[in-house]
Write a structure and sequence with these properties.
alpha/beta; Rossmann fold; Arc Repressor Mutant, subunit A; 6-stranded parallel sheet
Length: 247
Amino acid sequence: MGWSQPHYAPSHPGTRGPEIDANRHIARARTVFVMNDELLLHGLVHLLGESDGIRVVGDLRHDGDLLDRLRLVAPELLVVGAEHGLQLAALRTQLDPVPKIVVVMDGEESPGRALELIRAGADALVDRRSPSADVLSAVARVLDGQTALDPHSANTVVDELRSQATTTADYAGLLTRREKEVLALLTEGLDNRAIAADLFISEATVKFHLHNIMDKFGVHKRAALVSAALRGRARGGVGGRPAARTR
């Protein structure tokens, strides 16, 4: 799992190093673990629970009662497993006060998942394969009012951002003039009928162009296509409303 004993030494007077100094921050937090993976849970509780007096006030599962239970224990820190269906944004908006949130994810997941979690409000991402020193450091930074990515997660995020930048730039050159017009109108919120009327073409033709555009972007849903197009527009790439309409 990555958090083996050689990476962790319990606190002893006069033997504090950089890793143990980080635990001074951890000791102040009422902490709740939320995850369904028992092995992961026990490893984290052992690592953080023995670190200089951290207050573990509960371990919960991802279920329908999660929000009510969190309101009862009022944690300062949530250490959350990135299980499928995790509604991180909902947790942040419905808890008051809002706890700091460290998400433990599997590096084998899609790189896009890391960005989703950051956008949803994660204060830190750590990979479950990370050594204990990196986990402790990330938690300490979060409790000190900062954000954090452990080295595994940082690499994942950087790779995804680079991939998106390359992808949107490349696809911009693959679109025909008409496809760019259709895509620009789609990103403005128009449906197929409105796009057809705006460009003086049939709805069937609009569907044909959208199918081709999605194939070029490698996506299968309109929402994903719009998201990719907007990222490209922000970089001066894909999209841009046509200046004039032609038959």
